[in-house]
Amino acid sequence: MAQYQSFPDAAGASRTLEKLRGLLLPDLAGRSFLDVGCNEGFFCGFAKSAGASRVVGVDQSALFIERARQRFPGCEFHQQGWDTLPGGPFDIILLASALHYADDQPALLHRLVEHLSPDGVLVLELGIVSSAKSEWVKIDRDIDQREFPTMPKLREILRDYAWKWMGRSVQQGGDPVPRHVVHISRRRPLAYLLMQPPGYGKTSIAERLFAPSDVPVVSGDLQIALIAQAKREASPRLRRLAKQDYSPFQLDRTIQAIFDRGAGDDLVDVWIAQAGAGDFAIDAYVPVEHQASVESRLLALGYLPIVMRWEKVGARMLPAEAIDQQAEAFYQSLRSPDAPRPQVDPAPSRGYVDELTVQSGRLVIRGWAVDASGALPRRLGVRIKGRTHYVDEFEKLLRPDVQKHLDATHALLGYRATLEVPGVEAIDDLIGGFEVFLPDAGTMRFGPAVAKLLRPAR
């Protein structure tokens, strides 16, 4: 079976490290993660390295699951399809480059959202056809024909969810349509909170904003009056505080006492009982030092509280720099000699020398190299006038130009090696007896500038 995901020891068809960056995964620390169609488990391994508490991958391929288990023994892998998903819920679910294989794509999306925790996120990477119509479009691929949605069709499928288009994903070789990344969550009922002090026009604002949209407005003043008069169900503690020195002209004092004495959650429960299960607005003064507790109570009860602004629910997004650092650190950790690896067919090693200088009696060699696993070799060889030197410590450089030239999965292919070689004071001392080689392969080629420097004088 062809190699798909790319690792330091196995270059595959997918530009997996770049895709990881493009998925814009939420903060995974302490959260549960499921990768549906996990292949060899690259994203599961990243989730584990990012601090996920539980990491699960599923794939139909027995070979890929076995390789995933070898690479990432700390993760949980199952050989199965998506008709039966592992027990959840999960905080983050990933479905990358696989939706088009489903017989019923909307049903699969709905099933995955059902397996999310209340604040969970489904990270979806999929091909989207450019069209103004809401339709499925059959696309001929190299190996088969599959249906892909247009953006209007995707909006139609996701209309009952909260979702955001995050941008384009990394284009892979042979992709028939552009790939996109979408984050999907359950939609919470909205709780609009107007909690300013008396005299700030809360009632007028609520009537203008919410009455035309048929969003119920709960009057905090009315609820306090009904509780004090025993006309509204409430806890004994809340009823006692509401009745104590009740006056419609001093409601702010009554509300302050209710919250100061720990009955604020009881009052929020009364508001919700009047609002019903959908969106609602609350027109009620809440002391500023207790407003956060009102938001927390509503969150715990499944609402999205809005206080003069929209607040994101669930895992925070990491800055792009942090995503890059985590992704690169994870990728480099896979190069450790202790990292488990499956057996794969090696690719040819090769290298290049494109800069050669002698500085203060030191020989400086700069170029690029790639070993059989598709990574920068751990050791370089230098032969000068019949004497061989091995270089185990050298500066590692990013070479995007080489990555593009080789169609590699990463750019960490450059090196800058410095050697102290007795008797070498100038480039002329190297002419006629100098080569750089990879211990497990042949001699590196010289770039034009280096070849010119080493050409014997006529």
Q: What labels describe this entry?
A:
458 residues, alpha/beta, 14 helices, elongated, Immunoglobulin-like, single chain, Rossmann fold
Note down, in words, how this protein is organized:
This protein is an alpha/beta fold. It has three domains: 16-186 and 315-333, Vaccinia Virus protein VP39 (Rossmann fold, 3-Layer(aba) Sandwich), CATH 3.40.50.150; 190-306, Rossmann fold (3-Layer(aba) Sandwich), CATH 3.40.50.300; 350-453, Immunoglobulin-like (Sandwich), CATH 2.60.40. Helices cover 28% and strands 26% of the residues. It is built from 14 helices and 21 strands. The strands form five sheets. The chain has a seven-stranded mixed beta sheet with strand order 3-2-1-4-5-9-8. Strand 1 (32-36), helix 2 and strand 2 (54-59) form a beta-alpha-beta unit. Helix 7 crosses helix 8. The protein is elongated. The model is unreliable at 309-313 (pLDDT under 50).
